[in-house]
Design brief:
The structure holds two protein chains of two kinds. Chain A contains no helices and 33 strands. Chain A has a four-stranded antiparallel β-sheet with strand order 1-2-3-4, with no helix packed on it. In chain A, strands 5-6-7-8 form a four-stranded antiparallel β-sheet, with no helix packed on it. Chain A has a four-stranded antiparallel β-sheet with strand order 9-10-11-12, with no helix packed on it. In chain A, 38% of the residues are buried. Chain A is globular and about 60 Å long. Chain B is mostly helical. Chain B is 83% helix and 1% strand. Chain B contains eight helices and one strand; from the N terminus they run ααβαααααα. In chain B, helix 7 packs antiparallel against helix 8. The relative contact order of chain B is 0.02. Classes of the chains: A mainly beta, B mainly alpha. At the A-B interface, strand 8 of A face helix 2, strand 1 and helix 3 of B. Strand 8 of chain A pairs antiparallel with strand 1 of chain B, so a sheet runs across the interface. Chain A: One of its GO terms (cellular component) is microtubule organizing center. Chain A: It comes from Oryzias sinensis (Chinese medaka).
């Protein structure tokens, strides 16, 4: 593997365009566009303030740069470097900004989540959406980009609005049976919306596209509930990771639990456990299995290699501080492989920021704070 | 005599003697006798008294005894009662101790649960507090912002500053929002939902069909298996005649099941599952029977041979295998021999056969030869006889011819006018007659 020279970036804003041709990085208030193959700088844009958020449009023609402190959004065009667009939210402030799936609308969430403004780059139309809910994941677009689901809160009650992204027409608006909605996510086929409660109650609600409640699922009461949710790419399974360190898989026909995976402190039942051996005495462990993938943080410069450690393996468990809110226990990240055969989960307080599968489904990338790890699945070992 | 005896008794009693032989008079001293009598009476009275006393004593002691016995029985009863009470109390104590233990367990569980609940409440409380603080912070920010905005004169409005508006991503023109578009959106939404349901239903139908096929196959396999077993065990299971009849009825019913036609009716699926369950129950019972039979056989074998069943089973199997092998070898050798003999040594067989026939022929020929010999000897004799007869006959004929010749001569001579020159005529007529006789002899010989 060859490495290029190191480029500067700020805020971890470094994204490849959706068509894979360009690489955009932000350095303070500059936006640098490079060609992916040659890493030559193609374009350089200057924004008015330090860029807080940067996003490619879905057709790779435009880049959105948001500056939350100033309440500004600037949009740059790749084809026409002279084209500019500036959206000033004014005194109302800006908390988040994102593209719509068609790449022609920008959704700005104002400060205090007062409203969402939908700016159009094609027409002079501006839409406002009132009372969006400030929660973990209050807005989600369906995968085909046709519909947008938004969580709203009016009069101490939770609602979900479904918009048609074509013209921002409100398709459905219904109340959800939640006390405090924490997140929603479309299924990949766009027909089912998974809505879940905050962590004080384990409750998962499944609504169909036209607003009917299909099913609810609650694994247990009173203890802290759902921490992370992930659909399988085929829409057949819904994986729910919770604070009790278990992953439960629901099936799309009956919406009942078909499988449950645990993350015990002593691993005894998986096929292979890879342990990262370091020179430092603090041992980190890295397991490859159907159930668990965890990576502990370590210094970048330390030499490390992976050994297969014999079962049973004891994972170092750090008991979280019970007096703190949002304890660092539970399954916090889930990722299905693209063929829905494997699921990777992260349990506990390990420093893994993200788990992502390769689209071919046989390798997994784990990104920690200072490290990344590529895990290749051997088809012979993991054919269960 | 009597007097003497009484005197002896009195003296033995210790009373003064009332009469001795030394007394002069033979009359008794009245005083001493009276004294004696008085003493006797006293004695008697004393003894009566002691008797009374003793009776009284005896009564007393017997009553005491009775009383003691009564008290004993009473005390025994009391003892029994108290023992029973004791066991009862022990039993109660045990029960109470158990109760105490269970209650202690309950208490422990409840304490644990309470601890868990407390922990939960604590975590929820921290979460709530955290959220509350966050909300309060947000509120404060909002208040600050509001006050700032109210104070702030310069209100910056929202605005967008675009160089030029760009076209839509899909190149179409944007349309106004009308009822038609709303209806269109609704329609599209329902279309996606329906297509999803259709796809799902298709998958389920395929899966269903596959599963039904598998079930049907399984059922057929089970039915065939049971049929085979039924045939082999017909003699054993006479008691199941009733069920057999029922089985045959059901099987007839099932044969009419056509998987292709009846896949989609609930009734058909129920029939299929019921028949599968029935077959499975039968198969299970059959397997259980077989198991019990095997175990019985093993037990019997174990009793007789006193070896562990699997070992005997294995030994028997080995034995049977050996036997089979031997039989196979035997058959093979026999086949070889047969072929060998058939191919190579056919002559031996024929010669043997011929020998047999030859003997028969020989016997027959010998017999015939004997008969022929006999016949030949008979013929020889007859020929001899004939030749003798022929010789005799020739002699006789000769004689006859000579006679004839002479007669004829005589006749001739007699006939002729002369009758003296017989001698010279003899020679010539004999010659002529001999020739004539020869001619007739030869003719007679020829005739013979």
């Amino acid at each position: 593997m060859n490495f290029s020279e190191v480029f500067k970036q700020s805020n971890q804003l470094c994204k490849v365009s959706p068509d894979g041709k360009y690489l955009a990085t932000c350095v303070q208030y500059r936006l640098v566009i490079r060609d992916v193959n040659t890493l030559q700088i193609l374009n350089l844009y200057t924004c008015l303030d330090q860029i807080s958020h940067m996003e490619w449009s879905s057709d790779s023609l435009f880049i959105l740069c948001a500056m939350y402190k100033r309440g500004l959004v600037q949009v740059w065009s790749l084809e026409q470097p002279d084209w500019h667009c500036k959206i000033d939210e004014g005194s109302i402030g800006l908390v988040s900004s994102r593209w719509s799936p068609d790449g022609r609308h920008i959704l700005n969430t104002t400060e205090f989540h007062l409203r969402i403004t939908v700016w159009s780059l094609c027409t002079k139309a501006v839409s406002y959406i009132k009372y969006p809910k400030a929660c973990q994941k209050g807005l989600d677009f369906s995968r085909d980009g046709c519909y947008m689901a938004l969580a709203e809160r009016r009069d101490c009650k939770d609602y979900v609005s479904i918009f048609v992204c074509d013209d921002w027409h409100l398709l459905r608006h219904f109340e959800t049976e939640t006390q405090d909605l924490s997140g929603l996510e479309w299924s990949p086929n766009g027909c089912v919306l998974a809505v879940w409660e905050s962590c004080l109650e384990y409750k998962m609600l499944l609504y169909s596209l036209d607003g009917r409640l299909l099913s609810t699922y609650s694994a247990y009461e009173w203890s802290l509930g759902i921490k992370s949710v992930s659909w399988s790419p085929s829409s057949q399974f819904l994986a729910i990771g919770s604070f009790d360190e278990k992953v439960r898989i629901l099936n799309h026909i009956t919406w009942k639990k078909i499988a449950q995976f645990e993350h015990p402190a002593i691993i005894d039942n998986t096929k292979t456990v890879y342990k990262e051996i370091e020179k430092r005495p603090a041992v980190s462990s890295d397991e490859m299995s159907l159930h668990d993938i965890t990576v502990a943080s370590s210094l970048f410069s330390t030499q490390s290699k992976y050994d297969i450690s014999p079962l049973p393996v004891q994972i170092p468990v750090v008991k979280p501080d019970p007096d703190r809110a949002n304890p660092k226990i539970g399954v916090s990240a889930l990722a299905f492989s693209s063929d829905s055969r494997y699921i990777a989960t992260k349990n506990g307080g390990f420093q893994v920021h993200s788990l992502n599968w390769h689209c071919s489904g046989d390798s997994l990338i784990l990104i920690g704070k200072d490290q990344l790890c590529l895990c290749y699945m051997d088809a012979d070992q993991n054919n269960q | 005599m009597n007097l003497f005896l009484t005197l002896k008794e009195v003296s033995s009693l210790g009373l003064c003697t009332i009469w001795t032989e030394l007394d002069e008079s033979s009359d008794l001293n009245v005083v001493t006798v009276l004294n004696c009598i008085y003493d006797l009476i006293q004695l008697h009275r004393r003894s009566l008294r002691t008797l009374e006393n003793m009776e009284v004593e005896q009564l007393k002691s017997s009553s005491k005894l009775d009383y003691l016995q009564l008290s004993i029985t009473r005390l025994k009863e009391q003892l029994e009662i108290s023992k029973r009470e004791n066991t009862g109390l022990l039993e109660r104590e045990r029960q109470l101790q158990q109760k105490v233990k269970s209650l202690q367990n309950c208490l422990k569980n409840e304490k644990e649960e309470m601890q868990k609940l407390q922990n939960m409440i604590a975590s929820r409380a921290t979460q709530y507090n955290h959220d509350m603080k966050r909300k309060e912070r947000d509120l404060n920010k909002l208040k600050e912002r509001l006050s700032q905005l109210l104070v702030d004169k310069k209100e910056r409005k929202q605005a967008i500053d675009v160089l030029n508006y760009i076209g839509r991503a899909d190149g179409k023109r944007s349309v106004w929002k009308t009822e038609k578009t709303e209806a269109k959106h609704e329609g599209e939404m329902y279309k996606t939902l329906l297509s999803d349901y259709d796809a799902r239903q298709r998958d389920l139908v395929l899966e269903n069909a596959e599963l039904r096929r598998v079930l049907h196959q399984v059922k057929n396999d089970m039915v065939s298996l049971l049929h085979l077993k039924k045939r082999t065990q017909k003699g054993v299971q006479n008691e199941r005649d009733g069920t057999q009849v029922a089985n045959s009825e059901e099987e007839q019913e099932e044969e009419g099941f056509d998987p292709g036609k009846e896949l989609f009716s609930v009734h058909a699926s129920e029939k299929l599952t019921n028949s599968i369950r029935l077959q499975w129950r039968r198969l299970k019972s059959h397997v259980e029977q077989l198991d019990s039979q095997v175990s019985l056989a093993q037990v019997n074998a174990g009793k007789s041979s006193e070896t562990t069943p699997p070992e005997t089973h294995e030994e028997e199997v080995d034995k049977l295998k050996l036997e089979i092998q031997e039989c196979k070898d035997l058959i093979q050798t026999q086949q070889h021999l047969l072929q060998h003999q058939l191919s190579s040594s056919c002559d031996e067989i024929t010669s043997l056969r011929n020998d047999g026939y030859m003997l028969q022929e020989k016997e027959r020929l010998r017999g015939e030869w004997k008969t022929l010999e006999g016949q030949r000897s008979i013929f020889e004799r007859e020929r001899k006889n004939f030749t003798e007869a022929a010789i005799r006959l020739s002699h006789e004929r000769k004689a006859f011819e000579e006679d004839r010749a002479t007669w004829l001569k005589h006749q001739f001579l007699s006939l002729s006018p002369c009758g003296d020159p017989k001698k010279p005529m003899l020679s010539n007529p004999t010659g002529a007659s001999s020739t004539g006789v020869c001619v007739s002899l030869s003719s007679e010989a020829c005739r013979r």
